[in-house]
Amino acid sequence: MSTYFEIQTDNIDKRSIEQVVELLRNGSVIIIPTDTVYAYACDIYSPQAIDKISKLKQTKIEKANFSFLMPGIDMISHFTKPFSRPVFKLLKRALPGPYTIILNAGSEVPQIFRSKKKSIGIRIPDHAVVQAILDRLGNPLMVTSLKNEDEIVEYMSDPSEIFEVYESKVDGIINCGYGGNVPSTIIDCSSDEPILLREGAGSTDVLQ
């Protein structure tokens, strides 16, 4: 049975944040809101939680396109190889916001994924509750979007529906109201020129 949290973005309950962080540190998988769609999340240093998300997504960890959710730009370089000044400027324009930026992975990333992973998606969501969790946790979360089995609506946005479907499958669910149903814009910055891989909630103006 999942622990259910109702947290207001404009009046964040610190006690609930502490409980969420404690669950994450103990290897739990939690469904969280972001500034785009709801997502599975776990501590990047919890192998058992990463494996659980892989099973929920029915994918192998070495092939999974999971992203790191970070509290700020200053943490990115700890998990990536050095990147150029133009890429840094793009990061400053895009983040925090509804973007996933693909960067070359640093030495720690393959250890976390237990694979020869060469790149990693980075997200800094513009969402007060998620930022509060990240600030308290002190390290990134691993996330992947919560897909809907419905062929018409790709992403689940109703927290009560999410709870109904996932209460026995995850350890916690955070309700911050209805989520979006448009995913992040994905920009690949792993080579010399940024490449738009998916146009989503974030404007492509950041590429100009």
Describe the fold and architecture.
This protein is 27% helix and 21% strand. With 208 residues, it is an alpha/beta fold. A 10-stranded mixed beta sheet has the order 1-8-2-3-7-4-6-5-9-10, sandwiched between helices. The termini are far apart.
Task: Provide a brief overview of the structure.
The protein is α/β, with parallel strands linked by helices and 208 residues long. Helix content is 27%, strand content 21%.
User: What structural category characterises the helix and strand content?
Assistant: alpha/beta
Q: What is the helix tally?
A: 6
User: Average pLDDT, to the nearest integer?
Assistant: 94
Beta percentage is 15-25%
For the terminal residues, how far apart are their CA atoms? 47 Å
Multimeric state: single chain
**Largest pleated sheet:** 10 strands, mixed
Strand adjacency order, main sheet: 1-8-2-3-7-4-6-5-9-10
